[in-house]
TrEMBL record:
<feature type="region of interest" description="Disordered">
    <location>
        <begin position="1"/>
        <end position="25"/>
    </location>
</feature>
<dbReference type="InterPro" id="IPR011701">
    <property type="entry name" value="MFS"/>
</dbReference>
<feature type="transmembrane region" description="Helical">
    <location>
        <begin position="74"/>
        <end position="93"/>
    </location>
</feature>
<dbReference type="GO" id="GO:0016020">
    <property type="term" value="C:membrane"/>
</dbReference>
<feature type="transmembrane region" description="Helical">
    <location>
        <begin position="391"/>
        <end position="412"/>
    </location>
</feature>
<keyword id="KW-0472">Membrane</keyword>
<keyword id="KW-1133">Transmembrane helix</keyword>
<feature type="transmembrane region" description="Helical">
    <location>
        <begin position="308"/>
        <end position="325"/>
    </location>
</feature>
<feature type="transmembrane region" description="Helical">
    <location>
        <begin position="424"/>
        <end position="443"/>
    </location>
</feature>
<keyword id="KW-0813">Transport</keyword>
<dbReference type="InterPro" id="IPR020846">
    <property type="entry name" value="MFS_dom"/>
</dbReference>
<dbReference type="GO" id="GO:0022857">
    <property type="term" value="F:transmembrane transporter activity"/>
</dbReference>
<feature type="transmembrane region" description="Helical">
    <location>
        <begin position="357"/>
        <end position="379"/>
    </location>
</feature>
<feature type="transmembrane region" description="Helical">
    <location>
        <begin position="332"/>
        <end position="351"/>
    </location>
</feature>
<feature type="domain" description="Major facilitator superfamily (MFS) profile">
    <location>
        <begin position="39"/>
        <end position="452"/>
    </location>
</feature>
<keyword id="KW-0812">Transmembrane</keyword>
<feature type="compositionally biased region" description="Basic and acidic residues">
    <location>
        <begin position="1"/>
        <end position="10"/>
    </location>
</feature>
C-alpha cells in the first residue's frame, strides 16, 4: 500500500493499523448524537456545579465572609490556595479509583461528597474551619475533570473530542454567570434563620449539588463496552471506531516504559506549561471577579449581578471558537488568539480610568481566558498516543497547570486592591505571554515534524520505520513515523 493509500486509510493519522472503512457515515453520526445526548448534558452539569461550588467563595467574600470569620489580610488567599494544593494531591488517586469503581458510581459519589462539603462551608465559624473545609473541597472535587476527560477517550475518536471537551468546559463559564444570579438572590436571605447571606450561598448551592448527585447515579454513563443504553451492534461499532482511530479500543498493560516516555517527551511538558500559564489567569479571574468588579466602584449587589455578562460572553466565545477550530481543524492559532484577546482586556483594565471601559476590559479578559483554556485542555488527549503515556500526560498537564492557579490566587492580595489590582493584572499579562510562547513552540514543532514525516514517507514508501507490526506501532505511540499531530 502506498503512502497516500495509507493516509486515506487512516493509519497515517493515528499510527495504528490501516483501516479503509469509513467511520463518518450517517449511521455513525446518528450514533455520535446518541452518545452526546447521554454524556454531554449530565457531565457538563456536574462540572458546572463543581466550578460553582469552588468559585462561589468569591461571591461570599464580598457578602462579608472574610469579615465575619475574621480572616485577616492575605489569609483569604491562603484559603483559596489550600483548595488547589488538595486538588493536585488527590487527582491521581481519584482517577485510579475511577478505574476501580466505574464512572457510573464514582463520579456521582464524588458529586455527593463535595456537595455535602460545600454545605459545610456555610457552617464554619472561624478561619481554621475555612482552611479545613477548603482542603476537603479540593480533595472531593479532584477526580471529576480528569475522570470526564478519560471517559471521553473511550467514546470519541481523537478529532471528535476537542469540541466536546470545550462544550463540557463551557460549564465553568456558565457557573460564573449562574453563580452571580444565585448569589444576588440568595444574598437577600441575610438574617433568615439567624444566618448571614454568604452562609446561605454555600448551603443552598451545596444542597443543589447534592440533589443533582442523587439523579446522577442513574444518568452518568459507564464504560462504553458495557453501556446498556447502546445496542449490541452500536457497542461493536463504537469500539471499532475507537480501534481504527487510536489506542482507546485496545487493552494496554501497564509498563513503566510508557511512564518514562511521557516524562521524557518535551511536548508533554509543553502541554503542562501551556495550561500553567492559562490556569493562573483562569482561577485568579474566576475567584476574584466579583471583587474586581466591586473595586471598580459598584455596590456589592450590583457586583454580583455584573459577573453574569462577562461569564455569559465567555461561554458563547468558547462555543463559537471551538466551532471554527473544528471546521478548520486547528487548535494553536485560536489558543494564541484567545490569549491576545485576554491581554487586551487586562491592558484596558490597567490603562483606563472610567469604570465602564474597565468593565469592558473584564469582558475581553473573560472571553479570552475561558476560550483558551477550553481549547488547550483537550490537546494532549488528541496528540499523545499510548494509554499510559496519555494518562500521565493529562495528569501532568492538570497538576503543573494548577500550580499556576495557586500562584494566581496568592498574588491577588488585598494590599494590591487600592490600585485596582494593577500589579497582579500586569503579572497576569506576563503569564499569558508565556502561554503564547509555549503554544507557538508546540504549533511550530508539531507542524515541522508532520512535514518531516510526510517527506520521509513520500521519499521512501517502504521505509523500514513505517513497515512495522501493530504492537511496535503502539509501543512507538506518537513517535511512530505514520502518526500525525493535531496542530
Amino acid at each position: 500500500m502506498s503512502y497516500e493509500q495509507e493516509k486515506k486509510a487512516g493509519s497515517v493519522d493515528s499510527g495504528l493499523s490501516p483501516n479503509p472503512e469509513n467511520y463518518d457515515t450517517p449511521e455513525d453520526k446518528k450514533l455520535l448524537r446518541k452518545v452526546d445526548l447521554h454524556l454531554l448534558p449530565i457531565l457538563t452539569l456536574l462540572y458546572l456545579l463543581s466550578f460553582l461550588d469552588r468559585s462561589n467563595i468569591g461571591n461570599a467574600k464580598i457578602d462579608g465572609l472574610a469579615t465575619d470569620l475574621k480572616v485577616p489580610g492575605s489569609n483569604y488567599n491562603i484559603a483559596l490556595a489550600i483548595y488547589f494544593v488538595s486538588y493536585v494531591t488527590f487527582e491521581v488517586p481519584s482517577n485510579v479509583s475511577l478505574k476501580r469503581f466505574d464512572p457510573q458510581y464514582w463520579l456521582p459519589f464524588l458529586t455527593l461528597t463535595w456537595g455535602i462539603v460545600s454545605i459545610c462551608q456555610g457552617l464554619v465559624n472561624n478561619q481554621g474551619g475555612l482552611f479545613g473545609i477548603r482542603f476537603l473541597l479540593g480533595m472531593t472535587e479532584a477526580g471529576l475533570f480528569p475522570g470526564v476527560i478519560y471517559i471521553f477517550s473511550v467514546y470519541y475518536r481523537r478529532h471528535e473530542r476537542h469540541w466536546r471537551v470545550a462544550v463540557f468546559f463551557g460549564g465553568a463559564a456558565l457557573a460564573g454567570a449562574f453563580g452571580g444570579i444565585l448569589a444576588y438572590a440568595i444574598g437577600k436571605m441575610d438574617g433568615v434563620g439567624g444566618r448571614k447571606g454568604w452562609e446561605w450561598i454555600f448551603i443552598l448551592e451545596g444542597l443543589l449539588t447534592v440533589a443533582v448527585s442523587i439523579a446522577a447515579f442513574w444518568l452518568v454513563p459507564t464504560w462504553s463496552y458495557k453501556a446498556k443504553w447502546l445496542t449490541e451492534p452500536e457497542r461493536a461499532r463504537l469500539l471499532a471506531r475507537l480501534a481504527a482511530d487510536s489506542d482507546a479500543g485496545h487493552h494496554e498493560k501497564f509498563e513503566w516504559f510508557f511512564v518514562r516516555q511521557a516524562f521524557g517527551d518535551h511536548l508533554v511538558w509543553a502541554y503542562a506549561f501551556l495550561f500553567h500559564g492559562f490556569a493562573f489567569v483562569l482561577y485568579s479571574l474566576s475567584l476574584f471577579l466579583p471583587t474586581i468588579i466591586a473595586g471598580l466602584g459598584f455596590q456589592t449587589w450590583k457586583a454580583q449581578l455584573m459577573t453574569v455578562p462577562p461569564n455569559s460572553l465567555a461561554a458563547f466565545s468558547i462555543w463559537g471558537t471551538v466551532y471554527l477550530s473544528s471546521k478548520y481543524n486547528v487548535r494553536a492559532p485560536f489558543i494564541i488568539g484567545a490569549a491576545f484577546v485576554a491581554i487586551i482586556g487586562y491592558i484596558v483594565l490597567i490603562t483606563t480610568k472610567h469604570s465602564g471601559a474597565q468593565y469592558a476590559g473584564v469582558h475581553l479578559a473573560a472571553a479570552g481566558i475561558y476560550t483558551g483554556n477550553a481549547l488547550l485542555l483537550s490537546w494532549p488527549g488528541e496528540n499523545v498516543s499510548g494509554q499510559t503515556k496519555r494518562a500521565v500526560a493529562v495528569a501532568m498537564q492538570i497538576t503543573i497547570g494548577d500550580i499556576g492557579a495557586i500562584a494566581g490566587v496568592l498574588i491577588y492580595r488585598p494590599q494590591f486592591s487600592g490600585h485596582k489590582y494593577r500589579k497582579p493584572h500586569i503579572i497576569a499579562i506576563g503569564y499569558l505571554c508565556f502561554a503564547i510562547v509555549v503554544a507557538t513552540y508546540l504549533w511550530t514543532w508539531m507542524s515541522r515534524e508532520n512535514r518531516r514525516r510526510d517527506a520521509v514517507l513520500e521519499k521512501d514508501e517502504k521505509a523500514s520505520e513505517f513497515e512495522v507490526d501493530d504492537n511496535v506501532r503502539r509501543r512507538l505511540g506518537d513517535r511512530y513515523i505514520g502518526y500525525r499531530y493535531q496542530v
